[in-house]
Each structure stands twice: as C-alpha cells, then as structure tokens.
Specification:
single chain, alpha/beta, Rossmann fold, globular, binds nicotinamide-adenine-dinucleotide
Length: 247
C-alpha cells in the first residue's frame, strides 16, 4: 500500500494507461479521481475501483478546459478533502488525422501540453497547501527522439520541459514532478500496430525486451514516480520502452 492516505487525480483515466494508473493507485491505497472526456469510461473505472474496495470519484472533465479542471479539483476537495498526486495523462492521440496540419498543431499542443500546464496550475496550490505531493507527466519517446507528427513530438518534449520547470520551482514546497516517457504500450490507440503483424514484428525485433509494453507496466512506473520510493527524484525523465531508444 504505497499510496495510503493519498488522493490522486488521473486525467484520461477512463481507458488505456490512465485506467491502469487509476486502478493501480487505488490498489496501493489512494483515493482516485478518474477524470475523462468520456464520462461513461470514467464511471466504469471508478466502479471497478469501488468494487475492489477502493475509493474513487468519476468526473467528466476535459483536461484542456480550465473550467472543467477547476470543477474537478473542487469536486476532489469536496469528496476527499485533500490532493497529493496529479497524473497528467490525457492527450490527443498521435494518430489524430482530422483537419489541416496547422489545425492539428494547435489542437495537439492544446490537448497534450497546455492541458497538463493548466491542470498543474490548478492543482499546485492545493498540493503546496497540503505540504507537498507529486506530479507525473505521461510523455512519449517521440518527444526525446524523432517520431510522431511535429505537434506530438513538440508537445511531449515540451511536457518534459514543463516537468523540469515545475520541479525546480516547487521542490522547496515539497512538490516533485517527473516525466514518464513511454514507448509503444498496448492500448486502444496502438491497436493499429498490434493488428498489423509485419509492423508488430518489426517493432518487437527492434526492441531489446522483444515485446510491446502493457498498460500495467506503464502504471507500475507511474506508481514508482508518485510514491515515496521516488522521494529524492524530481525533474527527471523515466523512459519505459523496453529499451527501444537504446537499440
Ligand atoms: N499507448 C502508447 O503506446 C503510448 C505511448 C507513448 C505515450 N503515450 C501517452 O500515454 C497517454 C495515454 O495514452 P493511451 O494509449 O492510454 O490512450 P487511450 O486512447 O487508450 O486512452 C486515453 C484516454 O484519455 C481520454 N482523453 C483524451 N483526451 C482527453 C482530454 N482532453 N481530457 C480528458 N480525457 C481525455 C480518452 O477519452 C481516453 O479515455 C497519452 O498521453 C499518450 O500520448 C501512450
């Protein structure tokens, strides 16, 4: 129970990595606010947590909306009375194809980078008032090497910069911030790779561990960064990619 008596917000907690993080944090004792633009998905995960004996709050919230974020933080304080952990996980899928490249840039930066900045700005005063906490920003190896569309690589690289900036300014207030850079993880948005045998084989051949990561493995890394096991670690980028970026 590494997160006993902690309260966490997980953005995009209704599916994939966010869902796995929400479930894992709850298993480790945290009360979890599952925030997602998909209300039914958030509700489903909160119900899973409660069915397992945990405490959860489901909330429809667009992580990029200040209004939704404010209401989310208020709801968390109203229900649990505290907040120590924020996982900025929500973001536009790199495969998003609607609109022009310029439109995708604006939307991608908004949904993937500005969303994390806004949620951080809203949560920080609460974390500081409560004596500290931890922020985990879910990034991608596309942000520290070449890969993905321009907006995605830039938003994720920007998120690692934001992580360091927050870590530097908030460390004295007891707040740690770290980035978790993921390689390909099995979620709905990477189904297209898993369903293409040639692409999957090529990826597995290129990855030292020889396989795609699971959402549970991503959640385990997020748990480490959020827990006191990482009490001396802040402003860092933890890469969880099966070794893909060293090969
Ligand atoms: N899956 C991968 O291979 C992979 C690799 C690197 C990084 N990541 C990062 O991990 C994070 C999660 O990805 P995933 O694969 O679990 O995605 P997913 O599509 O499986 O789930 C994302 C969830 O976030 C929600 N969401 C989307 N935009 C939102 C918003 N603005 N506000 C609130 N909720 C929102 C969706 O409704 C969905 O429930 C993303 O930031 C992604 O960039 C994923």
């Amino acid at each position: 129970m590494r997160l006993r008596e902690r309260v966490a917000i997980v953005t995009g907690g209704g599916a994939g990595v966010g869902r796995a993080v929400a479930l894992r944090f709850a298993r480790e004792g945290a009360a979890v606010a599952v925030a997602d633009i998909d209300a039914a998905a958030a509700q489903g995960v909160a119900e899973e947590i409660e069915a397992a004996g945990g405490a959860a709050l489901a909330r429809r919230a667009d992580a990029a909306s200040l209004e939704d974020g404010r209401a989310l933080v208020e709801a968390v304080l109203g229900r649990f009375g505290a907040l120590q952990l924020l996982v900025n996980n929500a973001g536009l899928p790199s495969q998003y194809r609607a609109g022009s490249e310029l439109e995708r840039w604006d939307l991608g930066i908004e949904q993937t980078l500005s969303s994390a900045y806004r949620m951080t700005t809203l949560a920080l005063p609460v974390l500081v008032r409560g004596g500290g906490g931890a922020i985990v920003n879910v990034c991608s190896i596309a942000g520290n090497r070449v890969g993905g569309p321009d907006w995605y690589a830039s938003a994720k690289a920007g998120l690692t910069g934001l992580t360091r900036s927050i870590a530097a300014s908030e460390g004295r207030h007891g707040v740690r911030a770290n980035a978790l850079c993921l390689g390909v993880v099995e979620t709905q948005r990477t189904r297209f790779i898993r369903e293409d045998p040639a692409a999957r084989r090529a990826l597995e051949r290129r990855t030292p561990l020889g396989r795609i990561g699971s959402a549970d493995e991503a959640a385990a890394a997020a748990l480490f960064l959020a827990s006191d096991d990482a009490s001396l670690i802040t402003g860092q980028v933890l890469i969880a990619d099966g070794g893909f970026t060293i090969a």
